[in-house]
UniProtKB/TrEMBL annotation:
Transmembrane segments: 204-224, 245-266, 286-305, 326-344, 356-377, 397-419, 425-447, 479-500, 535-556, 577-596, 602-630
Localisation per UniProt entry: Cell membrane
A Pfam family that the UniProt record links to this protein: MS_channel_2nd
Organism: Sphingomonas palmae
Signal peptide: 1-26
Chain intervals with Basic and acidic residues compositional bias: 791-801
UniProt keyword annotation of Transcription regulation present: no
Protein name: Small-conductance mechanosensitive channel
GO molecular function: mechanosensitive monoatomic ion channel activity
Gene Ontology CC terms: plasma membrane
Region (Disordered): 787-807
Family of the protein in this entry: Belongs to the MscS (TC 1.A.23) family.
């Protein structure tokens, strides 16, 4: 692993703090201060430009990129603030107006116009200067990135003799005396410096640093673990939060305690002046090596949690954790040794052959460790497959394992053919990816557990939000899920930027943050500046608008509509129209806050009309039909309607469809266009009454008066039949020896007609039986008619007569 990992990460953190502080000051700044800010940015850009004329190493390149990025942000910020003041000056000039031709202005107005024109010229030139500085700084940043990418590619493609060839070892042996002499000189200088400074006095600073080093790495680290575990047990809500929180705490303790311990040790040596000048890079590398080894050991240990399975976050068995833990310890030790060896090689200015030999050893050890880990994983998967009796394992793990074996194969072949840099990069990338992936997985899990536990309807925070703000419980749950998703996305993007950063590949985290800073300044899209600030402002305006719509709807439904004479269907129509109009106004208000005027909204609507013409005709037709239904109200909620062969009650009318509850309690969803363009039977539109119709026939000679009396008495005996309109019975016709009666009665609602009709039928049948009235069918008579005997009436052919068709 690269020894500059810690310095790169700290530099990335400094870049984060710098970027966070750039747009913080929103108050108006004087033109002089902004001009000084532009001058400083211009000097920094010139410094970076001159420095790039010479060859720079990785550390200098990172410093130059940070300086150029800061200069770009400073110039862009100054230009934006100057543009605001320029807009104010233009507004004042516009307020003065244009002097009329042939007239002279007053002296004070003329002087004010001249002063405003001078301010306009100065501000306009300053704005252009700031924008040009921003473009120049961005070009320098791109040049640095291209140079770094080219150097990284050269390092990967560098070729040396194969480690299996005599040429490789001959070069190492030839340079060995010179390397040993340089190592001896470095060691001797360190010993001489230590003896000189400790002669006649006790280096108590170094001893104190060593004691702090031992205390932090030993009892201090264990005590901090126990303190965090006890705090989480007593104060953290829920088992999930305690597990993930403890994993993050272990990573923090396992990374920071080695860092602080190494820093205390090195600082004690330096305070005691025991450090020689040639040993400064070694001690700096010791701090980086201790920190990275601690991160490796703690991240993998928190993931495996070998000795505390109840606190394990990942779905890993105890056997897997026990088998893999030694490999994580070896990885931490190998990372520490790699950083220290590379640092020592640079400190003693080792020869190229010695450095390549060191890289061969590092790559070989990484390859062996990776291959041993993959073999152990393979044996574990085989044992689990046998225990599960042939059950299939997860395909994702198999794909990752296959990819890792491919990397081992490619890196091994590259090492044998002399591509040492490429091989070392591949295996170190896998090792760093495992460490970074473990930490990222645990951090994302902790974020999800904390966010979803904190913002949950049953939590203290959730109950407080529900009671104080009147939010629904589902809204609190949704906010927790959304917050978790956003934070985890940020962590994932940051981890992706950190993946190649320690190796000097690409732009690293600093460039990633630079892109984020550019987005924070705003991106011009179609004449509209889109930035996180404007997006947040638009979301806030939309939220406020929807809250106002909700408050208005509450007043409308709770106070105003109950005081009107509208029925339920009319109130529903008013509610729907008011809600959609309010939402439309809130959306327009939010778009206006983003700088999107009505002309752009009209352009958007015209573009949508083209899409509607091609693919949204049915939806638009249903929407317009729904508005017509709500306005004209030919069908209202509660009406009994028949659509085709289906009959039921209207339960809900929306702008797209209408819901009809059928007799079997199922729901028929009918598009609104069907109700507007086709025939619909509404049984309760004009009158709520229902009608009963009864038809029967009696033989000719039956006393029709008595039959009519029986029918009317049966109608009167049925409670559902209304007295007004009064029931009636009519003789409809006389045919085939029978008298056909057609009788009518009315009930309160069409829904009661079927039951009332059945009751009247049953009463009539019983009374007709008692009275001896025959209501049977007309008797049918069947006559058998003999078929006539067929006669052969065909004329005989005359003898000698010609046949048809003969000539």
């Amino acid at each position: 692993m690269s020894p500059k990992l810690l310095s790169r990460l700290l530099r990335a953190l400094a870049a984060v703090l710098l970027l966070a502080g750039v747009p913080a000051a929103a108050q108006t700044t004087s033109v002089a201060a902004l001009s000084d800010q532009l001058a400083k940015a211009e000097r920094d850009v010139a410094t970076v430009d001159r420095a790039l004329d010479a060859r720079v190493d990785d550390e200098q390149r990172d410093e130059l990129r940070t300086k150029a990025l800061a200069a770009k942000d400073s110039a862009t910020d100054a230009a934006a603030r100057l543009q605001e003041q320029l807009t104010l000056v233009d507004a004042k000039v516009a307020q003065l107006g244009t002097p009329a031709a042939g007239t002279s202005e007053a002296g004070d107005i003329r002087a004010q116009r001249s002063a405003l024109q001078r301010q306009h010229s100065a501000l306009d030139s300053a704005v252009k200067r700031g924008r040009l500085l921003g473009v120049t700084a961005q070009q320098l940043i791109d040049e640095i990135a291209q140079g770094q990418a080219a150097q990284f590619g050269e390092r990967l493609s560098a070729h040396s003799p194969s480690p299996l060839s005599p040429t490789f070892w001959r070069a190492v042996l030839l340079s060995a005396p010179r390397d040993l002499r340089r190592i001896g000189a470095t060691v001797t200088s360190g010993i001489v410096q230590a003896r000189t400074q400790s002669r006649g006095s006790v280096p108590w600073q170094a001893l104190a640093g060593a004691l702090v080093f031992v205390a932090l790495l030993g009892p201090g680290r264990l005590a901090l673990r126990r303190v965090g575990q006890r705090f989480l047990i007593e104060g953290a809500p829920g088992h999930r939060v305690r597990r993930s929180g403890y994993a993050i705490w272990r990573i923090a303790v396992g990374t920071l305690t080695p860092l602080c311990a190494a820093f205390a040790l090195v600082q004690g040596i330096r305070w005691a002046r025991l450090e020689a000048a040639s040993w400064t890079p070694v001690f700096d590398g010791l701090i980086a090596a201790m920190t990275f080894a601690g991160l490796t050991l703690s991240a993998t240990g928190a993931l495996l949690m070998r000795n505390q399975s109840s606190w394990r976050v990942a779905a890993i068995s105890d056997t897997t954790a026990t088998r893999l833990r030694p490999f994580s310890i070896l990885l931490a030790a190998l990372s520490f040794a790699t950083i220290m060896v590379d640092t020592f090689n640079r400190a003693v200015n080792a020869s190229g052959a010695a450095r390549v030999a060191s890289q061969v050893a590092e790559a070989s050890l990484h390859l062996m460790l990776l291959a041993a880990t993959l073999l152990a994983l393979g044996r574990l998967r085989a044992e689990q497959a046998n225990d599960e009796q042939g059950q299939t394992t997860r395909a994702g793990l198999g794909a990752v394992t296959l990819l890792a074996w491919g990397i081992v194969l490619v890196a091994g072949v590259g090492l044998l053919f002399g591509y040492v840099g490429f091989s070392l990069f591949m295996v170190q990338l896998v090792a760093w990816g495992a460490v970074l992936g473990s930490a990222t997985y645990l951090l994302m899990t902790a974020i999800d557990d904390i966010a979803t536990s904190l913002f949950k309807r049953s939590s203290v925070t959730g109950r407080t939000l529900v009671r104080a703000l009147g939010l629904r419980g589902s809204s609190v749950d949704q906010f927790g899920v959304l917050l978790s998703g956003v934070l985890r996305l940020i962590v994932a993007v940051t981890a992706f930027g950190l993946l190649l950063s320690p190796f000097g590949a690409g732009n690293g985290v600093t460039s990633l943050l630079g892109r984020v800073s550019t987005l924070a300044q705003g991106v011009e899209i179609g004449g509209v500046s889109v930035s996180p600030g404007t997006i947040v402002r638009g979301l806030v305006v939309l939220f406020v608008g929807l809250a106002l719509v909700r408050a208005f709807m509450g007043w409308l439904e709770g106070r105003y509509l109950p005081a009107t004479d509208l029925d339920g269907s009319g109130q529903n129509s008013v509610r729907l129209v008011a809600r959609y109009v309010g939402i439309a106004l809130a959306v327009i208000w939010a778009l206006a806050s983003l700088g999107i005027g009505m002309e752009r909204i009209a352009l958007l609507l015209s573009a949508l009309s083209v899409g509607i013409g091609f693919g949204l005709q049915a939806i638009t037709s249903n929407f317009v039909s729904g508005l017509i239904l709500l306005a004209e109200r030919p069908i209202k909620i509660g009406d009994l309607v028949r659509v085709g062969t289906d009959e039921g009650d209207v339960k809900r009318i929306s702008v797209r469809s209408t819901e009809i509850e059928l007799a079997d309690h199922s729901t028929l969803i009918v598009p609104n266009s069907e109700l507007i363009t086709k025939s619909v039977l509404n049984k309760t539109l004009a009158s709520p009454l229902g009608r009963i119709q009864i038809q029967f026939s009696v033989p000719l000679g039956t006393q029709v008066t008595r039959v009519r009396e029986l029918v009317l008495e049966s109608f009167a005996a049925e409670p559902a039949v209304l007295d007004d309109p009064a029931p009636s019975a009519f003789v409809d016709s006389i045919a085939d020896g029978r008298i056909l009666f057609n009788c009518f009665a009315h009930v309160a609602t069409p829904r009661a007609a079927y039951g009332a009709r059945s009751a009247v039928f049953m009463a009539l049948l019983e009374r007709f039986h008692d009275e001896g009235v025959d209501i049977g069918t007309v008797p049918q008579r069947l006559e058998m008619v003999a078929a006539p005997t067929p006669a052969d009436d065909r004329p005989e052919k005359k003898r000698g007569a010609p046949e048809t068709g003969d000539v």
